[in-house]
Amino acid sequence: MEELNNNQIPEEEEVQKEEEQIPKFRGLYRYVNISVKQLDMIIAACILVILIVVAIELMDPGFTVSFNSLGGTDVAPQEQMYGDLIDEPIPPTREGYTFTGWHRDSACLVPWDLETDTIETDTTLYAGWEKTE
Length: 133
Prior knowledge:
The chain contains 2 helices and 4 strands; from the N terminus they run H-H-E-E-E-E. With 133 residues, it is of the alpha+beta class.
């Protein structure tokens, strides 16, 4: 058997002594080089951030779709989420005109397709009108 100096400890004994120095009650924490108190504070902070983000998302009503009837009857605004189709509103009425649909611009040059166009931001749609004879 090998002779050992007073300074030398066989590797098995070194590993055993290192394992003995790691507290057994730490559970998963025993593999992390940080105090339990610090790690608990980090975990609590992460949970708090997650809760704040969830609360903000729940309070967010989405985007507002406003309807400018350009002289017709009022149409109530809608709250929609990103990527949603708008609910078809009751068409406005205007004496002497026929409603022709909703448009993206006040000049009524770019129509809004209720079947395919989705909400990406706060939006104002404009009523298109055709004069009746």
